[in-house]
Write the structure tokens for this entry.
Amino acid sequence: MILGIIPARYASSRFPGKPLVEIEGKSMIQRVYEQAAKAKKLAKVVVATDDERIMEHVKSFGGNVVNTLPHHPSGTDRCFEALKKTEGTYEYVINIQGDEPFLAPEQIDELAGACKDNAELVTQMIAVDSHDVLFDKGEVKIVLNDKQEALFFSRMVIPFIKGIEEKDWHKHHNYFRHVGMYAYRTDILERITRLMPSPLEKAESLEQLRWLEAGYKIKCITTKYDSHCVDTPDDIEKVLKLMGK
């Protein structure tokens, strides 16, 4: 069975109270929860939060919620605590971003469907088809091996293509950028929460590099569903336009 967990913090330097902000009549967290609940391959969906206001709100619309400690360094750590506090036995946990109010349930099912063959960690990627996206340092690129497992994640463009103008690199190599969620095999989730921050993680500010440095394998699957996150109040309008709302 697969458990979907939505980490939700009230405190945010760029957007305090983000999970409770109203978007066309519903809170952000309710929209994410309802979209996740439509996924066919999740046995259960829970919100993991450290805030009483979020807990009470989730209960008010009939959602499952667990109380977690306030000082987790990442959503991964919050997911592990939530797993321990949720009844049932699960083979995998999917960490669902709490700031994507129009998340497609089909994207969750794609990721859940890749949780097989004893995969340790699974995530998603989308092909890069433009120079601007490829060289955007806000977009994390993935280098893969021949088993579609991540060799490296970077904000820089890897590999460098010798003898080709940079504006044409995306035409000469299959580049991919990271999108969306992570699925963790539950025993692996427990192990990676014990790891200390690593040098590559600190350099790129990417938690998944800690796992790669420790020798864990991250399977990457291609998706057509892009991420539309709300990081600041201004992003709400942008997301509504993108989703045709």
